[in-house]
Automatic annotation (TrEMBL):
It is an enzyme of class 5 (isomerase). This is Replication restart protein PriA. It comes from Ferruginivarius sediminum. The gene is priA. Component of the replication restart primosome. Zn(2+) 2 binds at C463, C466, C481, C484. Signal peptide: none annotated. One of its GO terms (molecular function) is DNA binding.
Amino acid sequence: NPEPFTEVTENAQLFADERVRVLLPLPLGEAYDYALPPGMTVEAGSIVEVPLGQRRVTGVVWDATPAGGKVAAEKLKPVIRVFDVPPLPEVGRRFVDWVAAYYLAEPGTVLKMSLSAPAALEPPVPTVGYLRGEGDPEALGLRLTPARRRVLSVLADGPPRPAAELAREAGVSAGVIKGLADAGVLERVAMYDAPGFEVPADAPEGPALSESQAAAARSLSAKVRDGFSVTLIDGVTGSGKTEVYFEAVKAALRQGRQVLVLLPEIALSAQWLERFAARFGVAPAVWHSECTQAQRRATWRAVARGEAPVVVGARSALFLPYPDLGLVVVDEEHDQAFKQEDGVPYHARDMAVVRARLGGFPAVLVSATPSLESLENVRAGRYDSVHLPERHAGAQLPDIEAIDMRADRPPPIQGHGQSFIAPSLRDAVGETLAAGEQALLFLNRRGYAPLTLCRACGHRLQCPNCTAWLVEHRLVDSLQCHHCGYMARVPQSCPECGAEHSFAACGPGVERLHEEVKALFPEARVALMASDTVTGPAAAARFIESVQNREIDLLIGTQIVAKGNHFPYLTLVGVVDADLGLAGGDLRAGERTYQLLHQVAGRAGRAERPGRVMLQTYEPVHEVIQALVSGDRDRFLAVEAENRRKAGMPPFARLAALILSSPDEAAVDAVARALARAAPQGEGIEVMGPAPAPLAILRGRHRRRMLLRTRRDIAPQPLLRDWLRQVEVPGKVRLSVDVDPYHF
Ligand code: ADP
Ligand code: ZN
């Protein structure tokens, strides 16, 4: 990681000058100068409204010392107003600058992520909330219908709720609520923000820790007092990593500092939230893309005022305006979800470390299958590590076996057709269900079938906008492109040869597996969990609850079931296609597949019940399958690391990708050639490509990729800046830079 550009000091000097520099959350190269009208005072970080052309834009007073400015003072437009919210702290502004410089993005584009709750800036406008009132429904002669009863039970033990939220929670229409209020059973109150997040006075004691857990917790808690550090908590699933970092959270809270916990799938993390609330006696503030505007606004304000002691969020929570962040935890640090691919392509784990360094506090990275990047940082002494080698209370790790699909072929099922479940897995599912336990069949593929082809001529249905096959989704009766969202019906006749009703599904998706399982186990209660069948946090929470309450026997799911949830009665995991992630040949495929399958396997047998995991594979000797079966993680990672070192790839070198795209293929190629001619050269510097990007056509745009590779001790940013300055890119070609690309 490169060095921070500036020392961070609190420097909130008030301006008396009549000129201020304001950074706007727009893709602009730099901050603009504005005039400060007489009588208006601002400080560095003040959030202001300024004119830009015909528009009014919200921006941030950026520098402590305004530069001389190119525009004459009398030509400057005046600041319109200053918002009544705390200024964006110095460290938050330096973080925006740092991220922008590292990823070659405009600072304004990065700032936009910090101002992501515009409503939070306005003085709060009350909304109407409902409380249980004095009126007794019986006395008022109001019949207590089930719907009315549900409304009252939701309100029985809670703060006031706005109508929409109440209606959703109780599962009633707005009319039911209005009726109760008009009758006087509910009382209307004015609500400003969502309920606040209190500081836990002192967290209740956690469980008594084992010796190795206690040692890890002590070392982390000590670091909270010692400024910047990075520690990797490396321990098997169920070893108590969460209990251990909770101790560090407690230590930071005791010092009165804020804590940020990043989770890869926060919308699916109801269990984590419950566990946090049970441990600390308060719910943390939650921040992710599915939060409502009202929630965002409440959280943003609470964070800015220092009133949210703990924030748990997705990667964008890094950009909230913390005045006094004192600890950041990145749970499941290896997870791909931390890499943002759109907008500014940044890696939230890496930027969490940068944020910790700028703020002078510890970062804690947590995983059972750490990334090669983090392990290399530990090996090289840049990061510390603590190990938790055993599952808590002697719980057994699941027994993992491979099913060789070449020998154990699934025979067709009578009256159903093709099968994708080997006889041995079928038997194991049967035994599990007979024992009253639960089974999970994992297949990381949404929809019914990944490929649809014409039986007469072999024509395959492809997306008209992308180099990708269309995926059949039978539940919604359509073909879909998973890259651009294109949708169509399965055609009646083949567009190529004209044959009627000739299309056949090839290969399984989870919907097809669901169908097969229902034919095989007609008695079992089967449920399907994929991102398009279980949408949103509430649906996910209900789903997970029904598994825990044993209302489901057999679970079919994509990777969203793999994340974090704990199912005590789940004892069998069958991975239907363990080879799936290994195809395609990107250099991270082995590491990623290992991490995913290890995490899926960890769903089996977490309580007293031992678990069993079966991996269906056509390549049982593959090193990833072997590593899972033998449980020899460290040997596998050592081999992977050695391969990367030999290939001269990250973490042993630095990479930056340039992606060029345009609807006009010739224009893309022309820019690619010009870039190739101007490519940086030198010892330890190499440019690969141009070559078709992994998705050669996406949304109708032709894509080319070039990779800049440098030795670890050479920063690619100055080379990239120089390089890009030399090449003219016409308007119809889009050039994006991805520093530290996830795929290579
Ligand atoms: P990890 O984060 O490594 O998967 P957890 O912290 O979630 O592990 O622990 C797994 C389970 O074991 C949880 O239910 C947790 O409450 C329990 N557990 C872990 N350590 C202890 C302990 N020392 N005493 C009691 N329960 C523990
Ligand atoms: Zn498409």
